[in-house]
Amino acid sequence: MGIPTGYNRFFQRAEQLRCGQLRFKGESMNEINYKPIGIIHTPFKQPKGTPIQPAGAEDISGTVEVFPEYADGLKDLDGFSHIFLIYHFHLSGEYSLRAKPYMDNETHGVFAMRGPSRPNSIGISVVRLVGIEGNELNIQDVDIVDGTPLLDIKPYVPEFDIREVEKTGWLEKKVHKLSTSKDDGRFIK
User: Which of 14, 23, 166, 185 has the fewest CB atoms within 10 Å of its CB?
Assistant: First the structure.
């Protein structure tokens, strides 16, 4: 029994991607470039001491400065109470495929944890949108270091984004530590 026809194309594209031969918008898939659309401003001037998740940063205020050339994209965003901020962990150090996360003493695979040192240093946080003034968003429940480059904003919609889960892996017995867990500097450059 041979490989079904559709799989040959999949395996061919996967190999092209692995070798950097696949192209997307004129770029090699080995390197994808993003341009910041703004800057996130918070009370946290360094990673150490920053809350490690938005749920551990309740009522902490910040602002998002969206660059003027992207301000028109904010139209109708004020109709949402919560938003996703997608950003670049600009202060994270080299990644390891296994590391000790903030709330555990055991090592775990990087894709089974939510720390900042990753193969692609992309962060995502759900924050409360308090208001918009021009190109500035007022936010709360922010767990992000001041000066972090913003890559994108998306509305948070519970009907789209909340899923019933059966298990939460190694974190199941650790989530109670969230309110007291802060960045201890282990992932800084």
Answer: 166
Which residue type is seen at 150? L
Class of domain 32-180: mainly beta
Q: How far is CA 58 from CA 7, 55, 178, in A?
A: 47, 6, 11
Q: How confident is the model at residue 79 (pLDDT cuts 50, 70, 90)?
A: very high
40-55: burial string, b at 16+ Cβ within 10 Å, e else = bbbebeebeebbbbbe
Q: How far is CA 68 from CA 61, 102, 124, 128, 135, in A?
A: 22, 36, 22, 22, 6
Q: Model confidence at 18, in pLDDT bands (50, 70, 90)?
A: low
Pairing of strands 82-88, 61-66: unpaired
Domain positions in the chain are 32-180
pLDDT of residue 47: 85
What pTM, to 2 d.p., does this model score?
0.76
Taken in order 107, 112, 116, 117, the sign of the CA dihedral is positive
CA dist 15 and 39 (Å) reads: 36
